[in-house]
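Sequence only, no structure available. Ideas?
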Amino acid sequence: MEAVIGNEQSKPKGFRYYILDSIMNAEEDRTHEFKGHRNIAIEEIPPWCIDANDKRRKTRNCISRNICGFLNSGLGGTVYVGVLDNGSIVGILLSRYQRDHLKLSLKDTLQRFRPPVPNHLVSVKFIPCVDRSDVKYNRVMRRFNNNKNNVSSDESAVENCNEKGILGASELGELSSANGYSDATITPGAENGMSTEGWDWAVENVDQTELPKLLKFKNDILRKRPHVLRTYRQCWCDDDAITRVTHGHKSPAYVVEIVVRPPSAKDPEIRKHLPHSSELLLQPIFQAEDGSIYIRRHASLARRSLQDMIDEAVEDVHRVYYPILKEAQIHLGILEALVEKVESLEIDSKDNSVTSEHEKSGRCLFQKLKQLLH
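Reply:
I predicted one. Tokens follow.
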């Protein structure tokens, strides 16, 4: 994904963006899913998204199905909201209140899973989208000696005169001569944005793209207003966004990354929903809010019934614990043969009143072992 995401090294941590109308350098597979809508739950799918030829089939599927599939696959994955099936990045226009709505809808849907999905397994990231014309790179010169991380005073002139990041080999030679450096001190290939250690100077591209500024309101009481969930009808946050557009305030576009982490059978948040007598550390299975079980298979989902999952769990138990039971049966047969051997022996003792402590402890141990075996 890094080919379509902004440079993170030249900006503060967390500075990322997608370029509109570009193509993702990855395809849908077992850990990546593209969605062009933001309908999280099954209730958010509009009734008009029905196949005209097959009334039981919908032309749009909810995002919760993919989250369930990523959880049950054991690998996790990421759902990219705002990316079409062909990989084209179109973004989703979201206001501050609509982003709150999306996170609330996701949390509400995950709590309706069986068992409920722990909060630390799913996270949401809103990555802004920018036009390609707004992406700007400047070229600066950096030293690789003692002042490796310091930018020289002459680099500001390079940034000002080269806003678009176009600096040819001749300009590099003139700049180096003006500063007392020969052409040999410039890193080979520097005109192409390359840098090689061991030279005094190197020219590199620095991302200067500015993201759209967001309006911030202190003590915004609208963020405390309840949202309408589990419906395909518009919430008040959608009406507010439409009203802002009519007044010339367009909401910024985002690619929403819903990151799903693989669950663990040892997770206490998951085990508290299992029977207390269950000691089998098998892969946990989640049931979506629509009552179905989905498993991610490459770039598609496989819908499984509850009985299918029970049969697979039984097979997993046989596969994992059968070798252990087989070894236990072997040791049990050895112990039974040992008990039979001890019982067949005749104890010769001339004086039954005199018995050593070792013999007493051995007889007690033998009696306990015999009780356990029977």
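Residues 306-344 form the longest helix (39 residues).
Hope that gets you unstuck.
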